[in-house]
Amino acid sequence: MTLDNINRAAVDRIIRVDHAGEYGANRIYAGQMAVLGRTSVGPVIQKMWDQEKDHLKKFNELMVTFRVRPTVLMPFWNVLGFALGAGTALLGKEGAMACTVAVEESIAHHYNNQIRTLMEEDPEKYEELLQLIKKFRDEELEHHDIGLDHDAELAPAYAVLKSIIQAGCRVAIYLSERL
């Protein structure tokens, strides 16, 4: 994908928010690993974290290629992401997995919205970006399912916890697209 004839505002917004989201996911998994890294669920979290590291690396590259500035909120996502990961992990593996389910479901929904936007704009022009977002969305959905397989729904107040985390994700997405 080149810089020629693209909707610069849309591409900037997509890359900025997706970079912020992948950064936040990395911080969440770092927080979970700080608490649960030496437990039986540690390798499961590490595997998901490794995929998120790959996602972040790719969006770091896209930020340079398309000359997109990061969101000014990165310091907040650094602290809040780690705190969310560690805080939910303190509830046990079920809490960490509930966080994973909530976040990954929100991100998959967000990625689907971006896919729709790019398809409506010009699917051929944005083919590379579309394929990347689809791949990452599918991996996020795998993480979602892993969370369910590891007892996310047994977390204390699962429905409330999930709703609060997803509301936070919506706010983070909204702000990161704009700031």
TrEMBL record:
Keywords carried by this UniProt record: Iron, Membrane, Metal-binding, Mitochondrion, Mitochondrion inner membrane, Monooxygenase, Oxidoreductase, Ubiquinone biosynthesis
What cofactor requirement does the entry state? Answer: Fe cation
Query: Pathway of this protein?
Result: Cofactor biosynthesis; ubiquinone biosynthesis
Q: Per its UniProt entry, which superkingdom is the organism in? A: Eukaryota
One Gene Ontology molecular-function label: 3-demethoxyubiquinone 3-hydroxylase (NADH) activity
Predominantly, its location class is: mitochondrion
Q: What is its EC number?
A: 1.14.99.60
Query: Does this entry carry the keyword Cytoplasm?
Result: no
Q: Name one Pfam family in it.
A: COQ7
Q: What are the BP-aspect GO terms? A: determination of adult lifespan; regulation of gene expression; regulation of reactive oxygen species metabolic process; ubiquinone biosynthetic process
Q: Please share the entry's free-text remark on the cofactor.
A: Binds 2 iron ions per subunit.
Give the residue range of the signal peptide: none
Where in the cell does this protein reside? Answer: Mitochondrion inner membrane
Gene Ontology annotations for the cellular component aspect, listed alphabetically: extrinsic component of mitochondrial inner membrane; nucleus; ubiquinone biosynthesis complex
Task: Show the InterPro entries listed in the entry.
Answer: Ferritin-like_SF (IPR009078), Ubq_synth_Coq7 (IPR011566)
Query: For Fe cation 1, which residues are the binding ones?
Result: E22, E52, H55, E140
| Record's function text | Catalyzes the hydroxylation of 2-polyprenyl-3-methyl-6-methoxy-1,4-benzoquinol (DMQH2) during ubiquinone biosynthesis. Has also a structural role in the COQ enzyme complex, stabilizing other COQ polypeptides. Involved in lifespan determination in a ubiquinone-independent manner.
Q: What is this protein called?
A: 5-demethoxyubiquinone hydroxylase, mitochondrial
Query: Native species of this protein?
Result: Pongo abelii
Q: Which gene encodes it?
A: COQ7
